[in-house]
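Sorry, can you check?
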Amino acid sequence: MRRYLPVARQHFLAALAGTSVVVKSLSAAVLLLYLLSFGLDTAYGLGVTPGYLLPPNFWVWTLLTHGLVEERAWGLAASLATLGAAGRLLEPLWGALELLVFFTVVNVSVGLLGALAYFLTYVASFHLAYLFTVRIHGGLGFLGGVLVALKQTMGDSTILKVPQVRMKAVPMLLLLLLALLRLAALVKSNVLASYGFGLLSGWVYLRFYQRHSRGRGDMSDHFAFATFFPEILQPVVGLVANLVHGILVKVKVCRKTVKRYDVGAPSSITISLPGTDPQDAERRRQLALKALNERLKRVEDQSAWPSMEDDEEEAAAKADSPLLPDPGAAGKGASQESNLITFQDAPSQL
């Protein structure tokens, strides 16, 4: 720890220096509340307690503050690392304001969904501990949202080479790990609930509601809900997800997927979905053609072609050698002799 802690601190400060005021302010708030937790019960006053969120208490401010509350060192490190990764990887694509909106949406959704889940558990068991003992807090909810966003933007990137793990598999692998730790009673139920509802709320926001230059949401196939699961389970999950989506469309919670047909395009009919940009596909096609042309050019350069300089050198060598007759000269002399004979015979013919 003495060897690697200063290096980790140096890398974190370097990564934080290139972020906006939003990421720096959130990181400072997390660090400050962690220091206050040594003398105050910050999880009680700022974390989401399901019973206090319900009437007549209405501790609604906890929906905004619970994501900043950390009481353990590993939780502090995870929250700061999540904010740093979001600032370096997502903020350049979205902007500081959109990152703040995403942070707020995910944390509020985690607080509401977590409180609802524990309230339903209380209704099923009538155990008051689920209402007044549970504290939902920490940055794991936002971590789930950030991992979903990274799956959307860089899902094919390789995180580990041995074994090979891609970014698109990380969200569900971490959920599986937390579920196993919960079964082994190594983590509390609020940890698993925060991360799971963070995954769900982050995907719903990015899938249907995020505004950008191409419209709203991301309806591409590689970001469908079934892609979070192994390929063997994707048909079943996709069927259930489509059924749930149809019900949500009927109650007007989600919008229906709309296809646009551009019959006036110079090529064949172009079909585009909301959230996708045809210019991106054209740009990728041009890059692929450029790479193919460069590869073909390198292959042609490596092939052996006859050189004109070699032919000129061989002709000069034959002209300088007295042993080799010049076929061009012989042909030239024969031509002059033929012309002379023709000229001498001309008067007799006249």
Q: What stands out?
A: The mean pLDDT is 80. Residues 96-125 form the longest helix (30 residues). The beta strands are 158-160, 165-166, 211-212, 215-216, 260-262, 270-272.
